[in-house]
Amino acid sequence: MRFFSFPILACVLFLTGCQTSSGPDQRIAQNPAWYSALKQEDQLLIRQGRIREGMGKNAVFLSWGNPDSVTNGTDRGKPVETWTYMTYQPQFISGFGMGVPAYYGMGYYGFGPGVFQDVVYTQEPAAMVQFENNRVVAWQARR
């Protein structure tokens, strides 16, 4: 039996976790009625992968896809729903060790002193959209 190292496994899991319908064009093709019901300026924003305040949930979905998490709460006494989109950021790790390091990445496995280097991916928020009455009232995204 052959084992994969952690970085290879992480890449495989990351790639298989990506949606095949990740682009706006594919989501539009799967939901033509939603798209055709929108104003022309919103259709253009969706094709560009952008959103604006006042857009409905269907339009945000067409532009950005399914969120990674949805939370409900209140803002100034009004019910709000927040969609969060996540991204993976690389964290580079290197060190010096004696013998086999406790870290099981693609680093140093020999006996005696050695240097190891590896990369792990941490999940961080990339964008958030806040809805009130099913309309965007606020949003933020990394550039």
Structure description:
With 143 residues, the protein is an alpha+beta fold. The protein folds into two domains: 21-66, no CATH class; 68-143, no CATH class. The chain contains five helices and four strands. The chain has a four-stranded antiparallel beta sheet, with helices on one face. The radius of gyration is 21 Å and the shape is elongated.
Number of domains: 2
- What distance separates the N and C termini? 43 Å
Radius of gyration: 21 Å
Average pLDDT number: 82
Class from helix and strand fractions: alpha+beta
SSE string, helices as H and strands as E: HHHHHEEEE
Low-confidence stretches: 1-6, 8-21
State the shape: elongated
Please write out the topology.
Elements: H1 6-17, H2 24-30, H3 32-36, H4 40-47, H5 57-64, E1 69-75, E2 78-98, E3 113-132, E4 135-141
Helix pairs in contact: 2-5, 4-5
